[in-house]
Amino acid sequence: MTQEHRTHNWIKAAVLIALPLIFFIGTICVGRYSISIEAVFKSFWTALTGADLGIDEKTFTVVMEIRFQRGIQGLLVGASLAASGACFQSLFRNPLVSSGMLGVSNGAGFGAALSILLFNSMVMTSVFSFGFGILAVILAYLVGKVSGGTPTITLVLGGTIIQSIFSALLSLLKYVADPYSELPAITFWLMGSLASTKSTELLFSAIPMLVGIMGMLLFRWRLNVLSMGDREAKTLGLNVGLNKGIIVGFATLATAGAVCISGVIGWVGLVVPHMCRMVIGSDNKWLIPASISIGACFTVFVDTLCRTISGAEIPLGIVTAIVGGPFFIYLLKKTKGKNW
């Protein structure tokens, strides 16, 4: 590797690290109550050291108790969904695959709805949605094993079957829910939002998201080999079944952690990896880090739009589709999908 190549790689890495930090500071500053960058950093320093830097109580509360936590959640959720989508697209060599392909989103939605009917507790909703999201992927894997055939195809088919089953069960719960209290809560959760998360729920979901993201980063080299096909990967000495299972496990952990705290947010796991692939190429050495960085930025940006463009906050899942869809069409037109 030449010195010029090394320098180019360092610049790319620095940009990918800096972008989420810039968007994070930006989302804290922007809102119906605007805050200067100076006040944001003073609030950070006050929270860290306890020093009195003359920040008024209202500004400190907005920065540290509302927007800081929401910004962290947006970064983690976006990074998790985008990285998982990139992993699945490479692993299954299918451009239409997203982070919820194996039924994790539908399973999590069913778990959340069941929790709302039984407990009406945000903590239990997070626990149930996470548990059923993981269960859905396990069931998809078992269905794929039962059917036999080509492992990649049967896993996708298993995911499709489990998605349909959990979607039907979710519809059943919505049918029997109280139309004045429980049904609106289920519907709003399914639209996706970062608005009402508590610190304990964020901590609960951050652990699987961070574990999943780190795992996908560590295995991105092997993902390059697996994306060549099972036969080629075996020829190169890779244990295909074991490595696929590990990568699917990490991607599922990250997605389930994201969905259990934010609800179902579509398009991030589908659009962002394509954005990165069209700009940076299909090498997972850079595609996975780029998806993590751009996914975090995209989700934080869209969440900022959700809470600023109108008096009432718009659900995140609606705006991701409105923003992501047309931008995806623009990228397809510009690049003609040449990096796929």
Description:
It holds the Pfam family FecCD. This protein has a single domain, classed as ABC transporter involved in vitamin B12 uptake, BtuC. It is 79% helix and 0% strand. The chain has 14 helices and no strands. The two termini are 25 Å apart.
Oligomer: single chain
**Apparent shape:** globular
CATH class: Mainly Alpha
CA(first)-CA(last) distance: 25 Å
Radius of gyration: 21 Å
Main location: membrane
Keywords: Cell membrane, Membrane, Transmembrane, Transmembrane helix, Transport
Membrane topology: Multi-pass membrane protein
Transmembrane segments: 13-35, 74-92, 112-143, 155-173, 202-221, 246-272, 314-332
What distinguishing features does this structure have?
single chain; 340 residues; mainly alpha; ABC transporter involved in vitamin B12 uptake, BtuC; 14 helices; globular
Briefly say what this structure is:
This protein is an all-alpha fold and 340 residues long. The protein has 14 helices and no strands.
Write the layout of secondary structure elements.
Layout: H1 3-29, H2 37-49, H3 57-92, H4 104-118, H5 122-147, H6 151-176, H7 182-191, H8 199-218, H9 220-226, H10 230-235, H11 240-262, H12 268-280, H13 284-308, H14 316-335
Transmembrane segments: 13-35, 74-92, 112-143, 155-173, 202-221, 246-272, 314-332
Family: Belongs to the binding-protein-dependent transport system permease family. FecCD subfamily.
Keywords: Cell membrane, Membrane, Transmembrane, Transmembrane helix, Transport
